[in-house]
Amino acid sequence: MKCFIGLGNPGTQYANTRHNIGFMAVDHFAKKWNFSSYQKKCKGLLAEGNVNGQKVYLLKPLTYMNLSGESLRALMDFYKIDLADVIVLYDDMDTNYGNIRLRYKGSAGGHNGIKSIIQHTGTQEFNRMRIGISRPLPGKEIVDYVLSPFSKEEFKTMDPILDKLSDAMEFVLTNDFERTMAKFNT
Questions:
Q1: How many Å apart are CA 178 and CA 181, to the nearest integer?
Q2: What is the DSSP letter of 35?
């Protein structure tokens, strides 16, 4: 069993923003594998599915980004999921747009969603798929940038990025995380 938690903010005003690429990634995977509809559970939206014979949970916290750890902790406690079976997908300004970086430990790097997960799990050692959104141009506020929608040009290239993430998500279900990192880090 694995759980993919896509980080983002609930509500239509955030739907296509850079900060919500984690939500977009799990939604893309859910569509590809015909997951059940999302249900409100564990302070989030939870979908269950089966991928190549393995049970998979997809979680989108409804706690807003800064409290994402609350939703993950609720899921882990209710379903008795080990943190080793959790993979967090989230936006990363230190990775160029379109690239993904997988890591199995590290600091929050200023990302409030990751800070919350570290706080609620008590460790910096958990599997992550960081999705590159690049840094804003000089003079643009970071908060405004991450809460702004992707540009039309970026949207044109979104499907191949989400496809690659889905491939990495599928691959990690039958391979260890280190092998997945070696294959998918760009």
A1: 5
A2: P
Q: Work out the pLDDT band at 173, boundaries 50, 70, 90.
A: very high
Q: Other CB atoms closer than 10 Å to residue 160's CB: what's the count?
A: 10
- pLDDT tens digits for range 35-90: 999 999 999 999 999 999 999 999 999 999 999 999 999 999 999 999 999 999 99
Tokens of 163: 């496809």
Q: Which residues are catalytic?
A: 19
List, in sequence order, every beta strand (DSSP E) within the chain: 2-6, 39-41, 44-51, 54-61, 86-92, 100-103, 127-132
Q: Name the CATH superfamily housing domain 2-184.
A: Peptidyl-tRNA hydrolase (3.40.50.1470)
Question: Using N-to-C axis directions, what is the helix angle for 158-172 and 177-184, rounded to 10°?
Answer: 150
Q: Please tell me the pTM assigned to this model.
A: 0.96
Hey, what are 25's tokens? Answer: 């990634």
Nearest in space to 25 (alpha carbons), one of 168, 185, 184: 168
Strands (E) across 15-174 are located at 39-41, 44-51, 54-61, 86-92, 100-103, 127-132
What 8-state DSSP symbol labels residue 108?
A: -
